Design the sequence.
């Protein structure tokens, strides 16, 4: 079995995989040695991959605990030099986020023979495209839903700070409705535009949606999409298997 750890700034996402299938997952602010020991009791874990946003992951409690429980030889730290099952032609690979690398690997695992459009909807919206020959040329980044709401509040004198509203009208008839409709519809149109563009290039393109705002977009997009909330965990497991 494989243990995958996605260490973020606030939360750690954990997944246990058996022969490519996710058997157990959870999210926690802390992951100490005792928790790792309990995971080892519950699951016969042999290999571990850690993806971290922190620069000094080797000094983190998660790495030290994993090293004590599983042994350093069984731990893979994801970085820009880690072999992955797709060709990366990004011009600055050292700046490509590890979450994007993992999502690309997860998309490769799910649809190895199709072109893949990966949309990660969170604090930022990332749009990445993996060709059918599994070559990654690049992608785009734009502000996510809440980031856009925050920007309107921070950069204007009178507009209020709002959050997602699933019941907003298409055209606002007051300031709050205008913000809800403007922010939310603009992002829906933006993502629909990307999907339509890449389907025009290749009708076999598979669109994969993941990220914290996945439910909002899944309920509002008209195009057919595959909603994969654990795409990053799946990708980390794919990379771990690829390096085994």
Sequence:
């Amino acid at each position: 079995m494989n243990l995958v750890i996605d260490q973020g700034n606030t939360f750690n996402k954990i997944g246990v995989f058996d022969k490519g299938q996710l058997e157990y997952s959870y999210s926690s602010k802390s992951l100490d040695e005792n928790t790792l020991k309990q995971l080892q009791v519950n699951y016969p874990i042999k290999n571990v991959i850690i993806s971290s946003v922190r620069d000094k992951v080797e000094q983190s409690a998660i790495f030290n605990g994993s090293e004590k429980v599983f042994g350093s030889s069984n731990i893979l730290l994801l970085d820009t030099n880690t072999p992955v099952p797709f060709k990366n032609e990004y011009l600055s690979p050292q700046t490509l986020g590890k979450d994007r690398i993992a999502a690309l690997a997860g998309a490769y695992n799910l649809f190895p023979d199709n072109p893949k459009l990966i949309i990660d909807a969170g604090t930022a919206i990332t749009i990445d495209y993996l060709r059918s020959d599994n070559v990654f040329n690049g992608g785009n980044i734009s502000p996510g839903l809440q980031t856009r709401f925050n920007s309107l509040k921070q950069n204007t004198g009178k507009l209020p700070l709002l959050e997602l509203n699933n019941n907003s009208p298409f055209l606002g008839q007051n300031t709050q409705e205008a913000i809800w409709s403007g922010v939310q519809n603009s992002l829906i149109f933006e993502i629909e535009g990307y999907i339509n563009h890449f389907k025009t290039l290749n009708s076999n393109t598979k669109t994969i949606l993941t990220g914290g705002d996945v439910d909002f977009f899944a309920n509002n997009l008209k195009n057919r999409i595959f909603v994969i909330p654990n795409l990053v965990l799946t990708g980390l497991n794919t990379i771990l298997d690829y390096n085994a």
